[in-house]
Specification:
Helices cover 45% and strands 10% of the residues. It is α/β, with parallel strands linked by helices and 770 residues long. Strand 14 and strand 15 form a beta hairpin. It starts with 6 loop residues before the first helix and ends with a helix. 45% of the residues are buried. The structure holds adenosine-5'-triphosphate and magnesium ion. The site of magnesium ion (MG) has 4 residues, from helix 3.
Length: 770
């Protein structure tokens, strides 16, 4: 029956094909950047569907971003000829988690219309709890505790499980109590935070084996992309869904959508019970070491870049122990990048010690391939200007006679503050750009206010939303009233909106506040009634108009007000794509990378972290300076691991490029309002001479452009002439730093602030170490 190879398989190399066709049992694809891991996953799903092994609804597929999920869905559709009627379980851990939780909310003490809180809501809530404990919230900042909770949740820890030291570290030893109080408060609010989207299902599965069994029967195939960046909670969640004990999996190989002639016998059941892996300590006794199902994880240990957020690269290194009998497939051919780009990235990442080490090769080498180009600029303004020029040059086709699309270009920054300069510059140039995964539309003040109204209409127990808008626009419902409402609600354990409805019947409030509150309640009653009858976009408009919110901005004389009104219009417009207000709200709370005008040709600006898995013809990597990249935080840590994660980030950055990779560093940078004289990143020293070239200073900036500065600084003929550890730009930079300071000071009009990590900083040590 193998007579004809389906089209979707024919382009694959033998290893990729093996990964696609080994549908039964655990499979790990461990391979470097651009080797087709994601393509394998996509094709694998297409193959499972095309051969009738499962229905779309029986496949659980986890991607790292919502955008990646959308793209995967599209490609599968293309591969199997549009026959995919939705893949309900293809998404991020969070989006799948929320879906599971909505179906079983009552099993963890929530109602199915629970609210998902964003970071700001969480911080407000924690602040209240800290104050309620009689603690000083300046000494014990809510933001800090929110981060602690996040860390615990990433590790899958309930209040009872957090380490004693952690519990003692915050709020005079009240860490554990506060965490407990926080969880209780969430329950009262019928709300959960992002961590709960995974932890609640884990709790729920453990407490309800029958529910878990239903999911075991449902999910015939499990697939995970970017497996190297799963955290412990995600890992526990996956293992719960992936393991099967033989007596409780009657559906395997029975019924379902089986292809004709397809063998029914599963390959991995009934095998010997494997010994416990080292990770089994995370699991309760009943969940240890059971046979597993058809799970396929793909990843690259060199691209593990979320350690700071709790990702455990060990998860991928442990796969064979966790899933006994796993087939491990390596892919070594890179289909994305030129030889120069791969050579540069490979040489750089070889400086990391803690890695498996992989072979990568490409036959995408052409004589006119560009090397990786390193550029220097005076400061970030010039950097943005020069990048803008380069982009326009490519766009016009000056470089090679070909006009290049902006869609094929990306600027990948280490820290989001770097974006502003590029945005400003591109606005000036009239160059289309989009910020991916950055300060988002939905995070704007007016949007968040409007959303609070919508949330409260859909979910009357949402006290945080209530507090946000009860006096926005101003209605004379100040702090005193809100506190009275708050106390009343707490005493009776009811939501604040309900408390308000009761309180207006009493004479506990001043007449003016009582009247104003009465109106608010009436409005919400009316809007809630219309929820089922009025089209949701119309209702949204009514809410914004009747509440006086739109008028508030119409009467506002500030320069931003018109823009805010436009944004509100846009918000209502953006709801059209959804079936209900609830669906929309859920979407907003999940979507981390909102893109506007996805159709336009535009340069992408994003952080290196959000560039994972993506590829572009041309990649610009600005800000390769000590203290920014590697980031100061990693340097301060002192250990190897932080620095190695930075290096992996650099590896991710370079390997996003298909054909052109431009790296930049500046001599002076303003960080947190202070000017700093900077040193080129050590990562520049770690690039191999053969694949890298140093750009001639191409500055258009008067003062120092072609004159002395640029030319003397870069010995274009042989920038690496001196030694491996002291390439041309560094010597020049060091020689130049004194000479240029005055010049610079006059030009900018700012005081120069030299910060410690210069000549004698960690860089010095690094050079010795090499
Ligand atoms: P990353 O580690 O960056 O996530 P990856 O291993 O997931 O990379 P893909 O994004 O799947 O790699 O593939 C990289 C590029 O190579 C894509 O453009 C993909 O279409 C292409 N590609 C993968 N396999 C093949 C193949 N067999 N033939 C032609 N092109 C391929
Ligand atoms: Mg990928």
């Amino acid at each position: 029956d193998q007579a004809r190879t389906p089209d979707y398989l024919s382009g694959l190399n033998p290893e990729q094909r093996e990964a696609v066709e080994t549908t039964e049992g655990p499979v790990l694809v461990l391979a470097g950047a651009g080797t087709g891991k994601t393509r394998v996953l996509t094709t694998r799903i297409a193959h499972i569907l095309a051969t009738g092994r499962a229905f779309p609804s029986q496949i659980l597929a986890v991607t790292f971003t919502n955008k990646a999920a959308r793209e995967m869905k599209e490609r599968i559709g293309m591969l199997v000829g549009g026959a995919v009627e939705g893949m309900p379980w293809l998404g991020t851990f969070h989006s799948i988690g929320v879906k599971i939780l909505r179906r079983h909310a009552e099993l963890v003490g929530l109602r199915s219309d629970f609210t998902i809180l964003d970071t700001d809501d969480v911080i407000r809530l924690i602040k209240q709890l800290i104050q309620a404990e009689g603690l000083d919230d300046k000494r014990w900042p809510a933001r800090q505790f929110a981060a602690m909770i996040d860390t615990w949740k990433n590790k899958g820890l309930d209040p009872a499980q957090i380490p004693e030291g952690d519990a003692r570290a915050f709020a005079n030893g009240k860490g554990r109590e506060l965490y407990t109080a926080y969880q209780n408060r969430l329950k009262t609010l019928n709300a959960c935070d992002f961590g709960d989207l995974l932890l609640h299902p884990i709790r729920m599965f453990r407490a309800n084996p029958d529910v878990l069994r239903d999911y075991h029967q449902r999910f015939k195939y499990i697939l995970v992309d970017e497996y190297q960046d799963t955290n412990t909670a995600q890992y526990m969640w996956l293992r719960l869904l992936a393991q099967r004990s033989p007596p409780t999996s009657p559906q395997r190989g029975e019924g379902g959508a089986k292809a004709p002639g397809e063998g029914a016998a599963p390959t991995n059941l009934g095998g010997p019970s494997p010994s416990s892996g080292p990770s089994d300590h995370l699991l309760p006794a009943g969940e240890k070491g059971k046979p597993t199902v058809n799970i396929c994880c793909v990843g690259d240990d060199d691209q593990s870049i979320y350690g700071w957020r709790g990702a455990e690269v060990d998860n991928i290194l442990r796969f064979e122990k966790d899933f006994p009998g796993a087939k491990v497939i390596k892919l070594e051919r890179n289909y994305r990048s030129t030889e120069h780009i791969l050579g540069a990235a490979g040489h750089l990442i070889a400086h990391n010690e803690g890695r498996l080490g992989k072979t990568l090769f490409t036959d995408r080498a052409e004589p006119d391939d560009e090397k990786v180009i390193v550029h220097a600029a005076w400061d970030s303004e010039e950097e943005a200007r020069a990048v803008g020029e380069e982009i326009e040059r490519l766009q016009r086709g000056d470089a090679d006679g070909k006009k290049h699309a902006l869609n094929g270009m990306a600027i990948l920054v280490r820290a989001s503050f770097q974006m502003r300069e590029f945005e400003d510059r591109f606005v000036t140039l009239g160059l289309n750009y989009r910020v991916v995964g950055g300060p988002r539309f939905y995070e704007r003040l007016e949007i968040r206010d409007a959303m609070a109204y919508f949330r409260l209409v859909c979910q009357p127990a949402d006290d945080l939303a209530f507090e946000r808008i009860v006096n926005t626009p101003k209605r004379g419902l100040g702090d005193t009233t809100v506190r009275a409402l708050h106390d009343y609600a707490r005493a009776r354990d009811i939501p604040m909106l309900a408390a308000a409805a009761e309180m207006v019947e009493t004479d506990e409030l001043k007449p003016k506040a009582r009247k104003a509150l009465f109106d608010v309640i009436q409005y919400f009653r009316r809007w809630s009634e219309r929820l089922e009858t009025t089209p949701h976009t119309e209702l949204a408009e009514q809410i914004l108009d009747e509440s006086g919110y739109t008028d508030m901005w119409k009467n506002d004389k500030s320069a931003e007000a018109p823009g805010r009104l436009e944004n509100l219009k846009e918000l209502v417009r953006s709801m059209e794509a959804f079936e209900s207000m609830r669906g929309f709200l859920e979407h907003v709370s999940l979507v981390m990378d909102v893109e506007q005008n996805e159709d336009m040709d535009a340069v992408s600006i994003m952080t290196l972290h959000s560039a994972k898995g993506l590829e572009f013809e041309t990649v610009f990597l600005p800000g390769w300076e000590e203290g920014l990249f590697p980031h100061q935080r990693a340097l301060d840590e002192g250990g190897r691991s932080g620095l190695e994660e930075e290096r992996r980030l650099a590896y991710v950055g370079i390997t996003r490029a298909k054909r052109r990779c431009h790296i930049w560093f500046v001599s002076n940078r303003r960080i947190h309002g202070l000017w700093q004289s900077t040193m080129p990143s050590r990562f520049l020293d770690e690039l191999p001479q053969g694949h890298v070239e140093v750009a001639e200073a191409e500055s258009s900036y008067g003062g120092y452009g072609r004159g002395g500065y640029g030319q003397s600084r870069f010995d274009r003929a042989d920038p690496f002439a001196n030694s491996y550890s002291t390439p041309g730009w560094k010597r020049a930079q060091q020689n130049k730093s004194d000479a240029t300071r005055d010049n610079w000071g006059t030009r900018s009009g700012h005081a120069v602030e030299r910060i410690g990590y210069g000549e004698s900083g960690p860089r010095g040590r690094m050079i010795e170490g090499e």
